Amino acid sequence: MSRFFSSRFDALTPYTPGEQPQDRRYVKLNTNESPYPPSPGVSLAVAEESERLQLYSDPESRLLTNALAEHLGLDPSQVLVGNGSDEILNFAFMAFCDEDHPAVFPDISYGFYPVFATLNRIPYREIPLREDLSISVEDYITGEGTVVIANPNAPTGLSLPQKEIERLLADNPNRIVIVDEAYVAFGGESCLPLIDRYDNLLVVRTFSKSHSLAGARLGFAAGNSALIQDLNTLKYSTNPYNVNRMTSAAGIAALRENEYYVRNCSAIAKTRDQTAVQLRAMGFEVTDSVSNFLFARHPSVGGGELYRKLKERGVLVRHLSKDRIVSYVRITVGTPEQMDTLLRETKAILEEYQ
Ligand SMILES: Cc1ncc(COP(=O)(O)O)c(C=O)c1O
Description:
Elements: E1 27-28, H1 40-49, H2 62-72, E2 79-82, H3 84-96, E3 103-106, H4 112-119, E4 124-127, H5 138-141, E5 146-150, H6 162-171, E6 177-180, E7 201-206, E8 219-223, H7 225-238, H8 245-256, H9 258-281, E9 285-286, E10 293-297, H10 303-312, E11 315-316, E12 329-332, H11 336-351
Parallel strand pairs: 1-11, 3-4, 3-5, 5-6, 6-7
Antiparallel strand pairs: 2-8, 7-8, 9-10, 10-12
Helix pairs in contact: 1-8, 2-8, 3-4, 3-7, 9-11
Bound molecules: pyridoxal-5'-phosphate.
Pyridoxal-5'-phosphate binds at residues 32, 84-86, 110, 150, 154, 180, 182, 206, 208, 214, 219.
């Protein structure tokens, strides 16, 4: 740290992204990316748009916003696109949390939530997951503040029914509920259909996982148009051209070829369920994930150790060192071939412990 770094950030511990190692080729199952490339129209659209890079992008991202709104059955005023859902979430923390509206989220969830809160000097309260790692809406229904829930949750992969979140929205009309649906396309139940009924609901989504565009950085918020206007105020106060030309073109092309992604998501869900069966047969305890990752632990080998041994064998998974989940690894669902490699290497490692 330099001697000039503002003391405003003394309490800030930045988010630690998953490794993106360049030293060798890994079977990369650590950052919940799609194992499948973008659809063919995406690279064509990006190449074509790259010829206009001397011009700023449209600050309103009109073409993309209109295409997305139509795809979701919403009005364009109910949607805001951003540079990944991380940017959108940061705007949402800035817009809807403060001293009087602390952020409230599960103790085990997306690691960026406490970072956004600290960065923006917002007080926050972490609510422990239940013993079985599930979120109970009961724990959020009374109290103050802005609720942030990842549904399905990460890294557990567990999800809440839409009805449960609706209960939270209906019982708390004066509190904003932000539902982060980064993984909803793999089997969760979306809250998007509730947007017209609840002006306190903000749904945040991403093209990173379901639409194979993690490297393009494209996410969005959907909600009541007044909430979207608030987010826009922050966007225009930080980065008006937040979605670049190539990403916009990629997003539009991806929506045009949406069927391809729907098929990929169901293939990933199928691979997930098959892998879970095999992990359980090897003695793993595996949560009932409806996401594009599995969360698993084995009685014979610790999470950290399994992560290290798999890495030595060329398979990267994620290990999170939080107390309650230190025994687990999070495994992104890859292609069936990648999962075969994971299972083979895991089996070889477990043999060392017998
Ligand atoms: C729960 C959750 N929300 C949001 C994000 C951010 O996604 P992106 O910024 O790529 O849209 C992630 C990324 O892993 C996530 O796990």
